[in-house]
Amino acid sequence: METLLALLAIPLAGGPLLWLFGERDAAPEVNAAVSFATLVVAAVLTAQVISGGPVMGLYEQFFVDPLNVFLVTLTAFVGFTTSLFSRPYMRFEREHGRMTPARLRLYHSMYQMFMFTMLLALTTNNMGILWVAMEAATLATVLLVSVYRTAASLEAAWKYFILCGVGIAQALFGTILLYFAAERVLGAEGNALLWTHLNQVKGDLEPAIMSLAFVFLLVGYGTKVGLVPLHNWLPDAHAEGPTPISAVLSGLLLNVALYSVVRCKVLADGALDSRFAGNMMMGFGLLSVVVAAFFLSRQRDIKRMFAYSSIEHMGLMTFAFGMGGPIANFAALLHMTVHSLVKSAIFFTVGHAVQGAGTQVMEDIRGVLKLSPTVGWGLLLGTLAILGMPPFGVFASEFLMLTTAMREHPWATPFLLLALGVAFASVFGKIQPMVFGDSSHEPYRHQPALLPVFIHLAIALMLGLYIPPYLAAWYTQAAKLLG
Amino acid sequence: MNPLYGQVVNLFASALLLLAFAMLAQRRIVALINLFALQGLALVGSTATVAFATGQSHLYYSAAITLVLKVVILPYILHRLIRQLNVKWDIETLINIPTMMLVGIVLVIFAFNLALPISQFSQSIARGTLGIALACVLMSFLMMITRSKAVPQVIGFLAMENGLFFAATSATYGMPMVVELGIALDVLVGMVILGVFLFQIREQFDSLDIHHLEKLRDD
Fold first, then answer.
1. Is B107 helix (H, G, I), strand (E, B) or coil?
2. Does B177 touch chain A (CB under 8 A)?
3. Counting Cβ atoms within 10 Å, is residue A212 exposed (0-12), middle (13-18) or buried (19+)?
4. pLDDT confidence of B114, banded at 50, 70, 90?
5. Mean pLDDT throughout B92-98?
6. Average pLDDT of every residue of chain B
7. CB–CB of B193 and A139 under 8 A?
8. Taking Cα atoms as reference points, which of A457, A459, A293, A292 lies closest to residue A380?
9. SS3 for B99?
10. How many CA atoms, within 13 angstroms, populate the side-chain half-sphere of residue B52?
11. Which of A314, A453, B22, B46 is 20 to 30 A from A237 in CA distance terms?
């Protein structure tokens, strides 16, 4: 209980602290230290949940069960490694005049506020607070997307704000309908929006209301997941914001948004006899996978391309959660983990490569391997991992998803295979000349942040070869919880 | 329960809908802000009536929050903003207001049809109004889509929040207090950030026309 509150309190205090700390040189280190403290507390919390079962706190407003605890750890972990990466990245940006001390101050304090909203969304038991936290996450990141104040970044941030705002308004309407359905069973009191209470009475919720509520919730949170056709904000926000922000948007925000959808799906499944919720998710998921795969080949900007790759992978997970069942859920949870590790690692290397070449246009980035072997290898291995090459973890999860799809929904497999093939061809075809090839640029003068990249890739590799038994047990438990 | 209260809530609901139509057709920014404030006032009226009729005391608090936030603070910020941005007397050229009205009517019919099977489950005295709430949300959408200036888009965004809030009080007796406070905080922070943002856009493009913000495309 205390651990849970500490988990939320640290980043919440970190935001104002970094604002007060202001423009001093050590701010990046303080940011990393606060993120590290969050990670330590998250690890302690995980240990508690593993040994002592679900934790509930503050009049049941917060709870941690096997499903969200692994996302909490993942969020804290990626938050910490990204803060490490942002140190050399931001130092470079400052030396080149793209970041001023005032902007860095905003960046650091909003970074912690973003972490707070993510952790709040994950640990809250209240579906209303979940909505508030998701909206707050948009608010915390919108000024970071526009932090460079270029025309393109302003446009990206405006789009992000308006589209996500409109989307999340749908989710609020869905939440109101959910409350409406719950109130008839649980009575009009504060408890009627608590997920654990709803979960107990989900069979009694009025199906007509719940199906409409789920549609609104899926569309609303789906906008933040980046599901096609609600994905327009995502490539722009990823491409125009600073790269550490792209890494946390892809690695964390999308996961948490999908987590919200999945929580709602559990309730809708309980209330409806049909597979309505699952089918909706499968439809949106499959559409996202296919559309994003074909958009991949048309990209020229490297960050845009990997943003589309994120849409593709979020689509895969949505599809897998939509199929449901222990194996598909297991695969989706595993995919969530490895995708967020690998994708953020890719964005770290991309950040360095872009800084070295001075452009985001892929045709103008050449010979990364020659300029910096570590960045080059990181980018190459990360790309192979995200494209689903064995022995990385993405292969394992995609393999599980595909076999489940073949068994239960054979009609979907050709689409999935086609999309994965197209994605492989277009991404690898573009990354390969970037990594190899010749370059006229000088070798990087700054020291890239290598540790985060290779730790992420190493974990993704490990998860492909061997899932530690406690982790497997934990995934299985979470998958069972989802039904 | 006195059927009069239900009638009063319906009256406020119709005022809300009427104001939504008026906002759709309003071309002057100053008048738009005033309409938005009026809409907030109608919301306060309906919430207070529901609170009085049902004795749900926490609804008084939500009415008070709405009054402070949507009738006083947000319009004040907006007025200040347009004065500082020097767009106070801006008039937008809206093409084809009659067509927009017709589309608005279609949206209202659609919203009523969507809400009909659901509102029969409501025990609230204001159950007939769920359709109106949804219609207000959809019309704010329409407004955001059709406007080409940033400030009216922001107002559309805020009006959408009004519709959602009305849905919460009409279908149920308001959301739990902690959620309502959280939503109010989000709206307020969002407004402040939007304000900062408008200045950034203005600095970059020398105008608040969002046609400047349509450059990013996939080749």
1. helix
2. yes
3. buried
4. confident
5. 76
6. 85
7. yes
8. A457
9. helix
10. 14
11. A453
What pLDDT, on a 0 to 100 scale, did the predictor assign at position A262? 94
Contact across the interface for A166 and B193, Cβ inside 8 Å: no
Q: What is the pLDDT of residue A364?
A: 87
Cβ–Cβ contact B112 with A under 8 A: no
Cα–Cα dist A415/A288, whole Å = 11
What ipTM did this prediction achieve? 0.91
pTM: 0.94
Quick check: B190 contacting A, CB < 8 Å?
yes
Measure in Å the smallest separation between the Cα of B50 and chain A Cα atoms: 14
Q: Do B160 and A209 touch (CB under 8 A)?
A: no
Q: Which of A153, A176, A291 to mutate to test the interface with B (most CBs of B within 10 A)?
A: A176
β-pairing verdict for A55-57 and A62-64? antiparallel
Helices and strands in chain B, H and E counts? 8, 0
Structure confidence at residue B39 (pLDDT): 94
Q: What pLDDT score was predicted for residue B124?
A: 66
What per-residue string of b and e applies to A29-49 under the rule 16 or more CB within 10 Å gives b? ebbbebbbbbbebbeebbebb
Question: Cα separation of A329 and A339, whole Å?
Answer: 15
**Contact yes or no for A146 and B122 at CB 8 A:** no
B176-201 in b/e burial notation, b at 16+ Cβ within 10 A?
bebbbbbbbebbeebbebbbebbebb
A245: tokens are 């922000």
3-state helix, strand, coil in chain A (%, to 5): 80, 0, 15
* Residues of chain A neighbouring B139 (CB-CB closer than 8 A): none
- A311-351 per-position pLDDT tens digit: 999 999 999 999 988 999 999 999 999 999 999 999 999 99
CB within 8 Å: B213 and A158: yes
Chain B residues touching residue A166 (CB < 8 angstroms)? 141, 144, 157, 160
Q: Quote the pLDDT of residue A135.
A: 92
Q: Is the Cβ pair B190, A166 closer than 8 Å?
A: no
Chain B touched by A221 (CB under 8 Å) = no
CA distance A363 to A355: 15
- Chain-centroid distance of CA B190 in Å reads 14
Which residues, at least 6 apart from A456, have a Cβ–Cβ distance to it below 8 Å? Answer: A78, A81, A341, A342, A344, A345, A348
Is B148 near chain A, with CB under 8 Å? no
Cα A224-A136-A102 angle, rounded to 5 deg? 110
Lowest-pLDDT range of A108-117, A265-274, B111-120, B131-140: B111-120
The DSSP letter of residue A62 is E
